[in-house]
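Supplementary Methods, section 5.1.

A reviewer requested that the exact input to the structure prediction be made available. We therefore reproduce it here, unchanged from the version used in the analyses.
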Amino acid sequence: MKGHSSIKDLIKKGIKTTGSFCSFEAGLLAGVVEKLSDRHCFAQEIGCSLQTGENYCEFMIVFQKD
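The structure derived from this sequence is encoded token-by-token as follows.
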């Protein structure tokens, strides 16, 4: 999701946070994956750029076991 974050204007501005910030993107990503795979899933943010200092956020997709 490099360059497509709702916080892209905040990245590399010296702003830091201790909590997750990109839950909106996680929800969008889960919705797209769910639609493409036709399987229920959710996305968990595992790395927020405001926490890591990187210029991207990382997410993990978890599929519900049938």
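The mean pLDDT is 77. These observations are discussed further in the main text.
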